[in-house]
Amino acid sequence: MRTLPSVLTYCLLAGYNARAAKHGTIGFGINMYHPWCCTACYDSLAAVYLNCTTFGVALDSGGMGMKYRKRMDMDMSMAGSTSDACYASNLPYQQTLAYCVKTHCDTERVPYTKQNHCFERLAAGGLPVSYLQDSLPHIAPAEQLSQDAMWLNKTMLVNEGYWRADRGTIEAFEKSEGWHVRFSIILVTLSVGIPCLCGLWAYFSTKYGQQILSVPLVAFLWSNYALLALLKTRHSHPLPYSIGYVPTRAMTSWIVVYVIFNLIFNAVPFYSVQPNTWFANRNQEMAAYVSDRAGVLSFANMAIAILFSSRNNPLVYLSNWSYASYLTFHRWVTRIAILLAVVHSIVYTADYCYYMGSSSQYAAEATKAYWW
Question: CA–CA separation, 181 vs 27, rounded Å?
Fold first, then answer.
């Protein structure tokens, strides 16, 4: 009886360590942009140059710790590089970022410890900087950066319109990524959990078979649903075009439910935020989210398919299912994985052709060596 508390203790410690060490998956131990108010402040200053920014450096010749920025309205000769040391020593940048983080994150009731941790992490690429409270300006700035500001030479307010758009963008994107992970975990859990529940059923049926089957509903389901083939006259009969065999009614129901789960998970939920600092319009934004969802779920299904294809699959011994049953489910999971991969590719291609570039631009990109 001491095993269960030990397992629970291990799970709690593993969860704590994952949160502390940033191990796990997005939404479960790993946060991409938290707190969003702080990351949006950092992004709002990403395009400005400082008085320590250097110019005329080739984009492919920089060293470590250098951040290269080129404004879309400037030629290559104006590509600027700003080192982390420059950010750490530039007072207007540090004060502007600190004031933005403090005012916006206080409004969202983010604890100071999280604000300070985010500030120290982003303010200079990890180089030592003053605490958030110590970096605040003595006099609150009154002038706001314009949307197309090029330089930051004094402490200012970030552009509020850009900050709101970016904050909404990163929140929507991270939530979407979180749903990708949640749905993948649900699929894997169901695929492993249902056979294990069937194994428990088989165990109790062996031990208490007479008592269980004496219940009329259980006896009816067992004789008319669990054991029979989908078609009464066809059991393990090959289907046309080598797509498999006719499974039992129970296996057919599980396959149908699994397909429905995949359809639902690829349809909801998606959030659109406009104006958006990453996507030019809602169509481009939704195309990216839909294709990402299909791609992640394709990987999840592929992992399940690989597990169920093995003769040494441990679930065979835990579930009391035959290897043929797992192979049947494996075939359908593989088909779903391939279909989702195709959807992922088609939607991203359409996104590139119609929203990010053009068909001619796509054709030019497709001829480059990195595609092969």
Answer: 8
